[in-house]
Predict the structure of 4-hydroxyphenylpyruvate dioxygenase.
Amino acid sequence: MSPLIDINSAMSSQTMGVEEVETGIPPALSFSHIHLYTKELKPLSEYKSLEQRCNDFASASGFTPTQAGVESLEEMQKIWTSMDVSGYSPVASETSPANSYISQGRDVVAQLICGLGFRVSSVYDGADTTTMLVTSPDNTGVQFVVTAQKAEKEPTDGTLAPGKTTVSTDGITKLSFNDEFVHFDVSQLLRFFKNHQGRPGISCLAFEVTSGDITNIYNNYSSKHPKLLTPQGMVSYKDGSGSITRVLEVFAYYKGEKQVSDADEGTILRFVEKKLSHASAKKSCKLPGLVEVDATFDGTSFPAYCDHWVSNVVSRTGFLDTLEDTLGFTPKVDFNAGVVAAGEAQIESTVTGNTAAPVDTGGDDKIALKDQSQVYLPINNALTPIGHVHGFIEEIGQGVQHVASRVSDLIAFIQRANDCRRMTGEGFTFLNIPQSYYGVMLKAQFLNKVDSDEPLLGDEDAAKVMIFAEENGLCDLTGAVPLDITREEVKEKLSKCSTIAADKVDDVMEVVMRARFVNLHTLLRGHMSEKSYIAIVKNKILVDVQGEDLLFQIFTSNVLQENVGDEAPFFEFIQRVCSECLGPDGCPAKVKPGCGGFGIRNFLTLFLSIEVSKAMMEVKDAKLAGDAAAVTKAMNRVGAFTDQLNEANPILTDISDAMTAEGGFMEDLAKATDEAEKARLQALADEQALKKKEGNEKLMVCSKKYMEIMKALREA
């Protein structure tokens, strides 16, 4: 495959004159790939040795991912350490799975291989760079393209020798690139690192043009946002079959507001369009230059598919306007400062994207799972000079905060990831979610029987049972019940409590057992088994409900993080459980893209958990320094964040329910033809909109309260 000069990369808006550029209807897009830049990659042979070790381990151990997890962890660890490691140089903490896992300084390719069961499916060996394409068992799903400068090359100052590829941007000036594939050129890495404080990260979000003309995107940028065009513009490549792939790259963000700012040259948006030479040609939008290699999976991993990609930016409205001007994207969901205010940290977030048609699954859930035509891009901006989003931008600049991929069974997927990390010492850890999110034991729970209004204990006796439970190990001082406790253990202890009559021991026992996940059960009721509830809590998976749809989600700890405390991106994994109502014809109705929403309840949980993690690091540092006062201050911050989560959760539930109901009434209103019915639906929608507004006002009061608490703690 060789580069060509594309007519659109041979003309800039400055040369043509903005008024001469015709804007066009944006083409249809779908997710393509995520491009990560890192400092170092191992040779392909080492990754293939690691993959073989993983495959041999799965075969020898009989490991099968389940929601319950492995029964004999020690035995699995012994099998892993006995496997041949020739040809692979493990990181220090992977030499013995029993060693404490450290998330900093890890090889993200090895993490994906061991932790998720992904495989290197294509490679590129360039002039100065090496690239690995890592995919799940379905290589049409999520694609992680990982590039690093070759270790044997001397670090370059960015000066490019007369290269294999030249691109003319104005008909006169020639831009030279060392690499024949511009998107893999070392200059791209240098540009990103220069604008990202030298940190590894997610450098590019890439989309496939599925129909229409990529030239229209180029023209839209040329006409409306010429500052965002990259020097190379659009380059075309022809393969051996005569098929042409066009690659357009633009800078994602302005440095500030678009009217007065230059381009932020850190993050790139990439568009890939492949024009087939003939009908039988292979349709693939993998980046030109990538060469397929054998990828053998171990039979235990799950396919994953792109769901949404999130940016932290200076100007949220500016990025929204740019995407609407050039791609036709429009806002889908807004989260205001009340929803995402963790202590003093406040942000606003908007989910934008294209408008994809509902998916006709024909009753097959896999069709909706695999469909990547609905592009969602949540965009965050900070409202206060405190908190994660502000810190991210201040420390490393605007960029991709995280990328979310969806799977068919999140509980089993995460249980597998946790098991693999414990067994092999490699993989991912996940954001720590407080037990109170899922449920803790409270005195009020003993007033009635489980799932009943029938009285159980009086107020005074309930208080005594709470004290007994704390003193006898049925819960800790926060009310958290041990997850692995059995009914037999609980019943034996409760039988010794003089406050509880013998005929009520079983009912009290059920209250204790339910307390481990009582908040989840309030949301989902009997739709899940106790075993599944416990698996969710153990693996710290977040749950949200939107109408009849469910959303399960979880966030990894930072990836590509060099040092403890550094801001860095992370991954999110989700499962959308879409309800399929029957249509008028008696067949399953089409599934709405993004069913289950974006976790309005969990948005706050995510940012609070990030702040709690930072506060816990402060606790650790203070303890190591022997600073008792600092330990107390940091623990008070942890407590305040946890209290805010507990207080905000029921308010968020009310807001979410009102949003869902309002949306449903508005959808029905759009279809209604009878005027009286329209008036009725509008009134119902207005009622829910009022409830949503009242909920937001309550949330703002809650947010302000904890903002003042955190400010007082910080200034103390």
